[in-house]
Specification:
Length: 371
């Protein structure tokens, strides 16, 4: 009994919990760790966002520039000695590549939607671009037809049909002797197998052809479809941001006295492009040396011998502003940039990183030696 009593009276070990002080210290440490992790996560997310913004701006500039360069390289095929166009009822020889300068005036002023003078300092560019298939099989869609009877007026050609079924709403054609060409506004094609007659609006203009000094169109001239492309900077109504735009043109006098006008609403070529600059390289002395070209801002429509090169520059941004680690707009470095002869007006930084794409392209179709 005594032994049992001693066992019962032996004290037990008590379970020890956390004190209030220890709980407070643990909570504070947890809060600090979570805050640090959150800050690190937010900073990492901001870095990712800013990196994506820069990549976006690079992509937008590159895509816009490459699109322009592709069109430039195709322009002017068969028109190395100019393009004859009826302007105000009078034949006039033009460059198949020309454009306005954002700092210019008159015919050298840049124009935008509806051929209104631009006010933002950007340039614009007009190109006469043939269908890519014009050197393909006769009578195939987009391919050339051959003139079989010389003279002026409606053209008799070796194709008994239209180019691609139903004629487009405003079909543009050229008749080219592979040096100079004449722009035709097609109205109808009447088939009289094995030939056809191409009727066009300009047929009533006395002496109009691709070679007035020869008395009209000549047997063997090629007739093929072309597009009048007008590139400029405009506002995309869907997002309110500036973009590279393209409109299709037709012959007609615009407000600046140029021979082409936009015939419809433009389409967006590339979003988030805020500036477009183009300079024209002239080989005035016919040296054939690209290092000696004279580059100028803006080129009038009237035929200019020696046009050999253009330099395309576009400035693009990302979709949304870059921000710092405190989620504030980066104000110190994200500003509009000066390109060619265009220096944007001073303005507060807006957080948009600018990417510049600048590339020079030769105009192989305007060098007669390359034909």
């Amino acid at each position: 009994m005594r032994i049992r009593s001693k066992l019962r009276s032996k004290p037990r070990a008590h379970a020890r919990g956390m004190t209030l002080l220890e709980t407070m210290v643990a909570a504070a440490l947890t809060t600090i760790i979570l805050a640090a992790a959150t800050a690190l996560l937010l900073a990492g997310g901001r870095v990712v966002h800013n990196t994506e913004h820069v990549a976006d701006s690079h992509d937008h500039a590159r895509l816009a520039g490459e699109t322009l360069l592709s069109a430039v390289r195709q322009a002017g095929a068969g028109m190395s000695e100019g393009l004859w166009v009826v302007s105000g009822g009078v034949p006039q020889r033009l460059n198949p590549v020309f454009g306005g300068d954002g700092a210019g005036s008159g015919v050298l002023a840049a124009t935008t939607t509806g051929n209104q003078p631009g006010e933002d300092g950007s340039d614009d560019l007009w190109l006469v671009v043939p269908d890519r298939n014009y050197l393909g099989r006769d009578c195939a869609p987009g391919a050339a037809m051959t003139v079989v009877k010389p003279g002026t007026g409606a053209l008799e050609v070796n194709c008994a049909g239209t180019f691609a079924g139903a004629a487009p709403a405003n079909p543009m054609l050229v008749a080219s002797n592979m040096k100079s060409a004449a722009l035709l506004t097609q109205t109808s094609v009447s088939s009289t197998p094995p030939t056809a007659t191409v009727n066009f609006l300009e047929s009533g203009v006395s002496g109009f052809s691709n070679a007035p000094h020869k008395g009209g169109f000549q047997k063997g001239d090629l007739v093929y479809p072309v597009r009048l492309l007008h590139f400029f900077i405009g506002t995309n109504a869907r997002n309110g941001r500036r973009a590279l735009m393209r409109a299709e043109g037709i012959p007609g006098g615009d407000v600046s006295g140029r021979p082409f006008v936009d015939m419809g609403d433009p389409v967006v070529v590339q979003d988030f492009v805020e500036d477009f600059q183009v300079t024209f390289g002239i080989d005035a002395t016919n040296t054939g040396d690209p290092t000696r070209y004279d580059f100028q801002h803006g080129l009038q429509p009237e035929y200019t011998p020696g046009l050999r090169s253009v330099r395309i520059s576009v400035v693009a941004t990302g979709r949304s502003p870059r921000r710092d680690n405190q989620n504030q707009t980066v104000l110190s470095e994200d500003l509009p940039i000066a390109v060619e002869n265009h220096t944007p007006a001073a303005a507060p930084a807006d957080g948009y990183f600018r990417s510049l794409f600048s590339r020079r392209a030769e105009l192989p179709n305007l060098a007669a030696a390359s034909l």
